[in-house]
Amino acid sequence: MAAEICLSTESNFMNNNVLMRYLDAVKWFGLRKFFWIIRLQIIELKELLINSGLLYPSYQQSLMKRSMSRALIELYNGDDGHQVNHTQFFLGFGLIHYAFVRNLKPENILVIGSRKGYIPATLARACKDNRKGHIDFVDAGYGQDEPSKHWSGIGFWKKENIKKHFSRIGVQHYITTHVMRSAVYAKKFPKKRYQYIYIDGDHSYRGVKDDWRLFWPKLDRGGFISFHDVVARGYLDKGLFGVWRLWKEIDKKHAIIFPFPKESGLGIIQKI
Ligand SMILES: C[S@@+](CC[C@H](N)C(=O)[O-])C[C@H]1O[C@@H](n2cnc3c(N)ncnc32)[C@H](O)[C@@H]1O
Asked: How far, in Å, CA of 117 to CA of 94, rounded?
């Protein structure tokens, strides 16, 4: 009798075990199928939304989050001359500068000229993301009342609270603004050296050539100097573009040019 009880308990136990294994298999099969159906539908829906232009995943546009890209363009006046896209918040040339600084990890960066800070703010953001580096931003603060000097400047730097302006994206500690002409700045800080320089100030041939003469010697070996508007021609108000002429003259053995958009362009040279 005792043996019979023992046997039936054992077979009950075995039956239960088989049943559980069977249920487990069904459960997992069901869940897995459910998972794949949902996954496929999400992928199809996402593709549909992307193709119809309703969804722009941030990784498709920028190395930065969409909200940061948007802030850079809208608060700091990213424009078509930098190949910016105002609906997708694509950073255009800003993305090139950002990527250079993220990779180079420079200690010191110099920026000459900006209307409302698009490239200086983007570079300061790159320093913040690197947790390293500092921008010296120099702008004379010319406005539309000086038609041969402003180069689309709006006198912003003379009027605004600059620290507050850059604090809007939390980069105020990564940038120092010097409201003065680039030649005055070079005289004031003769010993400063840089690993990345961006020139976008005086766009006349003489003006940009002066900046080249002043700041190329301050660039460390291996560093990069970049010029905006290397293909821009004609007049901007009373200023005649001359960056293209300087670009033609200088040794470009170690240069890269983005000759578009045709009313601006970006040129970059490495110091070997
Ligand atoms: C407005 S930027 C050109 C636009 C620029 N592509 C941008 O993204 O904002 C030109 C700036 O250079 C400044 N500037 C012109 N000549 C300068 C000089 N010699 N030294 C320093 N800044 C200068 C002007 O004050 C102006 O703000």
From this structure: 11
Q: 85 to each of 71, 73, 81, how far by Cα in Å?
A: 13, 9, 10
Tell whether ligand 1 has an atom less than 6 A from the beta carbon of residue 186: no
The pTM for the full model equals 0.80
Q: With a cut of 50, which residues of the chain have pLDDT below it?
A: 1-14, 58-62
* pLDDT score for 29: 64
141 lines ligand 1 (CB under 6 A): yes
CA 245 to chain centre: 28
Ligand 1 center to residue 102 CA distance, Å? 24
List, in order, residues 6 or more apart from 233 with CB less than 8 Å away. 241, 244
Phi, psi angles (nearest 5°) of residue 113: 90, 130
Closest atom of ligand 1 to 228 CA is 6
